[in-house]
Amino acid sequence: MLRWFRRTPAPLDDALWQQTCRGCHWLHALQPAQQERLRALTGLFLQHKTITPVAGLVLDEGQRMLLAALCCLPLIEFGAEGLHGWSELVVYPDAFRVRRRHDDAIDDGHEWGVVHEWDDELVGESWDSGPLILSWADVQADIADPHAGFCVAVHEMAHKLDALDGAIDGTPPLPREWQRQWAHDFQQCYDHFRAQVDREQEVTLDPYAAEAPEEFFAVVSEYHFSAPDVLEQAMPAVAAHLRRLYGPSPGSAAQARY
């Protein structure tokens, strides 16, 4: 762990922290020990990350604390190591557009063919070693419907965890034996899910999870926090790995026994 993460962050205002937790199901439903760990991580986040609202958005102290806490939800068990490698959270008022480009290579591998460019509208984005980007409107929508299977902050933080070992492949850094079993179980579930989506079968999880292994990991991470029963029924092996990585989901039956 980097030396500056060892410094004790400035204490969070207690009244504001309690208000923040009461206003978000995922925070309020945590067990006391989990909530205390989250509070410490939130303090580190606020101390060491820059939160930059853009496009006219203004965030007050409570909203900044909420964003920091949501980003730290996946780190309650993983720890502050999950904050390494980047320094800024950029927040748009709403969904934002990014310009994409793809070059089709000629067969010899040395020349380029057709260049494709298009605009994507996103609610979140995570750059490998750059900022994490969120849409404030979508963060609020996730909080308003906490059991719908969506949490864009968790989704993008899962990408940050995935990137820690230098490979964006849907596997965060784990002990060797666990990583081996994780890779086997996740690949098996991903392949089956992608086949269902390709055949246009009805699926219970967001079909976006079939885009790539890294998106699969990010989407199922959202379900761990926001619809754990759906995930458990659809993919019990994946659900078990995520409980080990993240701890019991807030408000789940497992959490009640935690």
In short:
47% of the residues lie in helices and 14% in strands. With 258 residues, it is an alpha/beta fold. The two termini are 28 Å apart.
Textual characterization of the structure:
The chain is of the alpha/beta class. Helices cover 47% and strands 14% of the residues. The chain is built from eleven helices and six strands. The protein has helices at residues 14-22, 25-28, 32-48, 61-72, 136-144, 152-163, 176-198, 213-226, 228-234, 236-246, 253-256, and strands at residues 50-53, 88-92, 96-105, 112-122, 124-126, 132-135. The strands form two sheets. The chain has a four-stranded mixed β-sheet with strand order 1-2-6-5. The radius of gyration is 19 Å and the shape is globular. The relative contact order is 0.12.
Morphology call: globular
Taking all Cα atoms into account, the compactness measure Rg is 19 Å
> What ranges have pLDDT less than 50 throughout 5 or more consecutive residues?
none
The number of helical elements comes to: 11
Helix content: 40-55%
Overall pLDDT score: 89
Order of helices and strands: HHHEHEEEEEHHHHHHH
Structural classification: alpha/beta
- How far apart are the termini? 28 Å
The main sheet comes to:
4 strands, mixed
Number of strands: 6
Task: Give the percentage of residues in beta strands.
Answer: 5-15%
Strand order of the largest sheet: 1-2-6-5
